[in-house]
Amino acid sequence: MDLLSVIRNNDGSGGLCSVEIKAVVFLEYIGGSTPQIKIHTTNEEFYIWGTLKTWTKALQDSGYDFFPVDRNFSIHIRNIKRLDDQYKRAYFEYELGRDSKSCTLAWEKYKAVEKKLKQINQPFVETKASDDSRMISIKIKEALSRS
């Protein structure tokens, strides 16, 4: 289990803690006077210093499938469960709720993410604007049967 040392709040309050890298769903560049990255898990957020490019490269070189999807976001491909074709968003759970976390994908990166998911045989649901709730339920059941 690989851990990442992070801080709980971007001002350093709350102290240091460790986050399992597999639990990270995406990285978000938040800038500032010192380059800072917000680490997103499905239910928490943490902070580290550095650039998005540096952290994406370091995680890739450590064997993790992080992929830049926008100038401010890098996503952990293996944690994607659902792609929204209409709004170009990635989700990290099949069934969406009010508190579901998502990451915006640049339009030109959407197809590349979809292709990478298929290359690594990652089960996921792709929703289209024309999908109704019944169709989405069928797609979720199919994805769960592949996982």
Automatic annotation (TrEMBL):
Question: InterPro entries per the record?
Answer: LytTR_DNA-bd_dom
Q: Which GO-annotated molecular functions does the record name?
A: DNA binding
Instruction: State the UniProt keywords alphabetically.
Output: DNA-binding
- Domain named HTH LytTR-type is located at 14-118
Question: What protein name does the entry list?
Answer: LytTR family transcriptional regulator DNA-binding domain-containing protein
